[in-house]
Design a protein that fits this description.
7 strands; mainly beta
Length: 86
């Protein structure tokens, strides 16, 4: 199964990037889970956690505020004015 190529970026730095099995983020329309093969989309982030599950099951959590999430061809970009791993 293909992996997701994920990048979490804040205004001044790349917070994290790598391959993942799943991404869960909070958007203004509610929480969304993204798996490989997800349809292309663009969503506005609501302040809160972005949870990334790596292929081995390890989980990373970042707080992200004021930004957007983009999905295209198994690539997930999370761009926020402020983001940091917790």
């Amino acid at each position: 199964m293909a992996a997701l190529n994920v990048s979490v970026v804040s205004a001044d730095q790349e917070v994290w990037s790598g391959e993942a099995a799943m991404v869960v983020a909070r958007t203004v329309e509610g929480e969304i889970g993204i798996l490989p093969g997800h349809e292309p989309m663009l969503a506005i982030l609501a302040g809160g956690e972005v949870r990334v599950t790596l292929d081995g099951g390890e989980k990373l959590t970042a707080n992200a505020e004021d930004g957007f999430l983009s999905v295209q061809q198994n690539s997930v970009q999370i761009v926020a004015s402020r983001a940091a791993l917790v």
